[in-house]
Amino acid sequence: MKQPLKQVNFYRRALAAGCAQGFEPDGQLCLHLTGAQGGAYFVSFDTADPDGTYHRLVVDGDFAGAKLEVIAAVSPADAAPGVEDLSAFLASDAPAVQKMAALTALPHVRAVNRQDILLHELEGRWVYLCVCAAVQETEECVLRGIRLEFPKYSFTRYFPEIYQDNDFFTRYLAVFQSMYLDLEKRVDDVPLALDYESADGERLEALASWLGIDTAGGIFGPEQLRELIRHSALYQGGKGTRAALESVVELACGVRPRIVEQFQWSKKPVTAARRKLYEELYGEDSNAFCVILDLTGRAQPLPVSEAQLDALIDAYSMLGVRHKLVFLRRCSYTDTHCYLGVNSCLSTPETASVDGVRLGGYFTVG
Predict the structure, then answer these.
(1) What is the distance between the alpha carbons of residues 39 and 51, in angstroms, rounded to a whole number?
(2) What is the β-pairing status of strands 142-150 and 31-33?
């Protein structure tokens, strides 16, 4: 059953556009109660309908540790007794007590410790909302958003006429009506839950898991998860291939790796000593490969740990293969290769004296 309801949502940036006193926004644009004496939030909305009616107000938040007071007031114009411009007054730095007094001078609905409020008795073009929280305990109180539904709407319209003007029956039925409409809205919002471009947080991680994407213990951020979903043909369809492994390692650490497999060096005509060195460097057989990350030009540390990177490489490697993870960093220069146990970079030996001369800030022995 489709309802003719409109709604206005005050969430995130729309929530931040209101006037908060004693509340502070966090990184998710929710409002946390910080005032020792409590806090209040005020916002106004113009329906552009002089005969506008209202259905329901839903306050989304956690107020277990506070006394919650909600006021919804209406007016045919943006004015109140003694206040020429009520919207500007609510957005000013005036004390919250004065603002609440201005709202209660208008036709209003007031509710205490209720977050789902019926507004059928209100009528007017402008609606003014106040959410006030008074601290009672030490638990954190959070205002995540406000949803206003209008115009007035009741399921009693589907009942015989004798029931339609019964105020008690209207309120009684509104409980089940709200449950039904909320469930209907969740069904309507299913396509949004499947939109990885707009999903965030837990919803995005859940969507990635539905698609079989290995999040590697949470090392990927939201934008990285979107990249994995956007190119799932590469990261999922190509799992176990060199291209997919190179791409996912670069996505996790921001550095394009160099992968060395046995076939790349096993056919070269080298001495037995050199072949033994290659085996120690890159792997002993065809089931082993080496992943090299060149960090010599990188000032910042990698955003993932070595253990997390090892687990990621295992997840995107073929079953039964082994890998060696090597980081190239500028350290000391000794012989031709020196990243077996002590990470460094490859260099070309040069002649130098041993009389204490430093070349490039390092002691060089030749």
Answers:
(1) 32
(2) antiparallel
Mean pLDDT estimate for the chain: 82
Q: Which of 150, 152, 171, 72 is nearest to 115 (CA)?
A: 72
Mean pLDDT calculated for residue range 25-37: 83
Residue 67 has φ and ψ, to the nearest 5°, of -90, 125
- Cβ neighbors of 333 (< 8 A, separation 6 or more) are 344, 347, 362, 364
Residue with token string 């502070």: 24
Look at residue 216 in the predicted model and tell me its pLDDT. 66
* pTM, rounded to two decimals: 0.57
**Can you tell me the distance from the alpha carbon of 226 to that of 230, in angstroms, rounded to the nearest whole number?**
6
Give CA–CA dist 278/293, Å, rounded. Answer: 17
User: For 261-314, how does the pLDDT look when each residue is reduced to its tens digit (9 = 90+)?
Assistant: 888 888 778 788 888 888 888 888 888 899 998 888 787 888 888 888 998 899
Asked if 219 and 304 touch (Cβ cutoff 8 Å), the reply is yes
Q: Please report the domains of the chain, with CATH numbers, ordered by start residue.
A: 6-153 (2.60.120), 196-237 (no CATH), 241-363 (no CATH)
Q: Which two tokens stand for residue 214?
A: 């290995």
Return the residue matching tokens 């001078």. 105
Q: How many CB atoms lie within 10 A of CB 213?
A: 18
